[in-house]
Design brief:
The chain is mostly helical and 417 residues long. It is 66% helix and 2% strand. The two termini are 20 Å apart.
C-alpha cells in the first residue's frame, strides 16, 4: 500500500506444503472434536454469545439492526450462517463449522501475508517458513478454541488478517478487498472505527517523515478505499441516527460503558501464575492507590488529568497490562482449565506470541532511530499496526487475551520471518 515492493515471483505452495496444510487442518478439527468438545458440558449460549444469538433472530424476524450497545456485523453473520444451513443442520454447529473454515482460511492468509512481506524484505520465503506460519496459526491454542465459540473473535481474526494481506499486496483488487475487510471488521467490533483512524494518522506521519511519497498520485486509490469503507458503515450510522438523532457507530449506552471501562482499566490488570486453578483461573489485581485516585472521578477531563499526574503509575499499569494481554490458561474465553501442570500449553503459546511482539517492538524502534528516511516499508506498517493494536487495548481496557487475537496471525508472521 505504501511501498513499491521488489519484483520477485510469488512463491506458490508445493504439493508437499499443500498436503501438510490439509493434514494440519484435519488435526485442528480432530483436536476440537476429540479433545475439547468431549471434555466440556453440552454447548450452551451464555453471556455475550446469547446476546448475539438473540440479535441475529431479531434481524431475521423484524429486520431491525438497532442495538445501542452492539453493531450489526456479527449478528448478521449468524443470521446468514443460519440461513445457509437450510434448517438441515443445528444452526450453532453450522456456525462453528463455518468459523473453523474461516480459521483455516486465516492460516492460509497468514502464509500469503508472509509472502507479501518476504517480497518487501527481499528474503527467501522457504517452504519451511510457510509451513511454520500455517501450523502456528492453524494449531494455535489461543485462536483455535475461539473458532468454536459464538463470539466475534474468530470473524475478527479473519477480517484483520485479510485487511493486512490486502494492505501489503501489490494487486490493485486486493486494496478493495482490504477496504471491505476493514468496513466489516468495524461493524463487527466498533473498536476498529476509531482505531483505523488512529492507525491512519500514525502511518501517515511515518510515511511523510520517513520517506518521500507522492500523495497526489496515490490520492485516487486512497479515495476509493475510503468510499468502500464508509459505504459499509452507512447502515450502522444511519440506524443510530434514526433512533438517537446523532451520527455515531454505537448508541449512548455504549458510550457510558466505554467511560466505565476506561476508568476500571486504568487500575486493574491481569496476572496469571504458572499453575492454573479451577477456583481462581484468572487473577485480576487492583492497584489500590490508583483505585482510590481514579475511582471517584466523575468527569472525563479529570480522569485524564489524574492519569497524567500519576504518569509513573500509568506507565507501570500499561506495562503490566500489556504482558497480561498475552497470558491465558483458558481453552476459550468462557471455560477454565482444570490443569495443575506448571506449563500449560495455552500459556506457552502466549509466551511465543509475547516473544514475537517484543521482537517487533525492537524492529520498530530501530526504524525510528534509523537515519535513512527511506527505510519505511510494508514490513514496518504491519508491525506498527500490531503494536498499536496491543497498546490501545493495554491502555484502555482490562486485559483479556481475546482482545489481541486479531493480530496474533500477523505477529506470528513477523516472528517467523
Amino acid at each position: 500500500m505504501f511501498i513499491t515492493t521488489v519484483n520477485r515471483p510469488i512463491s506458490s505452495p508445493s504439493r508437499l506444503a499443500l498436503t501438510v496444510y490439509f493434514f494440519l487442518a484435519v488435526v485442528s478439527w480432530a483436536f476440537y472434536n476429540y479433545f475439547i468438545k468431549f471434555n466440556i458440558p453440552k454447548y450452551r449460549l451464555i453471556f455475550d454469545a446469547d446476546v448475539y444469538s438473540q440479535l441475529s433472530f431479531l434481524i431475521e424476524n423484524k429486520g431491525n439492526i438497532y442495538r445501542p450497545l452492539r453493531t450489526y456485523g456479527y449478528p448478521l453473520f449468524l443470521f446468514l450462517a443460519r440461513f445457509l444451513s437450510f434448517n438441515v443442520f443445528p444452526w450453532i454447529d453450522w456456525v462453528l463449522k463455518i468459523q473453523w473454515a474461516l480459521h483455516t482460511t486465516t492460516a492460509a492468509l497468514a502464509v500469503g501475508l508472509g509472502n507479501n512481506l518476504a517480497r518487501t524484505l527481499s528474503c527467501n520465503f522457504s517452504k519451511f517458513r510457510q509451513i511454520a506460519i500455517f501450523a502456528l496459526v492453524q494449531l494455535n491454542l489461543l485462536l483455535l478454541p475461539l473458532a468454536f465459540e459464538v463470539l466475534t473473535d474468530s470473524l475478527s481474526v479473519f477480517l484483520i488478517t485479510l485487511f493486512l494481506w490486502g494492505m501489503t499486496s501489490t494487486n490493485e483488487n486486493a486494496k478493495s478487498i482490504m477496504a471491505v475487510a476493514a468496513g466489516i471488521a468495524t461493524v463487527t467490533r466498533p473498536f476498529y472505527g476509531p482505531f483505523f483512524f488512529l492507525y491512519g494518522v500514525v502511518l501517515l506521519g511515518f510515511v511523510i517523515i520517513r520517506r518521500r511519497v507522492d500523495l497526489k498520485k496515490s490520492g485516487g486509490r486512497y479515495f476509493k478505499i475510503a468510499v468502500i469503507y464508509f459505504l459499509i458503515l452507512v447502515p450502522q450510522v444511519l440506524t443510530i441516527y434514526i433512533h438517537e438523532n446523532r451520527l455515531a457507530l454505537t448508541g449512548r449506552e455504549a458510550d457510558d460503558w466505554k467511560k466505565i471501562h476506561l476508568k476500571e482499566g486504568m487500575y486493574t490488570y491481569k496476572y496469571e501464575t504458572l499453575v492454573a486453578r479451577q477456583e481462581d483461573p484468572r487473577l485480576n489485581y487492583i492497584n489500590i492507590n490508583r483505585y482510590n485516585l481514579l475511582h471517584g472521578v466523575t468527569k472525563q477531563s479529570d480522569l485524564y488529568r489524574l492519569i497524567l499526574e500519576d504518569w509513573l503509575g500509568t506507565i507501570k499499569m500499561i506495562t503490566f497490562k500489556t504482558v497480561g494481554l498475552f497470558q491465558s490458561f483458558d481453552w476459550s474465553v468462557y471455560r477454565i482449565s482444570n490443569s495443575l501442570r506448571p506449563l500449560h500449553p495455552v500459556f506457552l503459546f502466549g509466551g511465543i506470541h509475547f516473544f514475537f511482539f517484543v521482537f517487533s517492538c525492537i524492529e520498530v524502534l530501530k526504524m525510528i532511530f534509523n537515519k535513512n528516511k527511506n527505510c519505511f516499508s510494508n514490513w514496518m506498517a504491519v508491525q506498527i499496526f500490531c503494536i498499536l493494536h496491543v497498546l490501545v487495548y493495554a491502555i484502555l481496557t482490562v486485559p483479556e487475551s481475546g482482545f489481541i487475537a486479531p493480530v496474533i496471525p500477523a505477529i506470528i508472521v513477523i516472528g517467523v520471518l
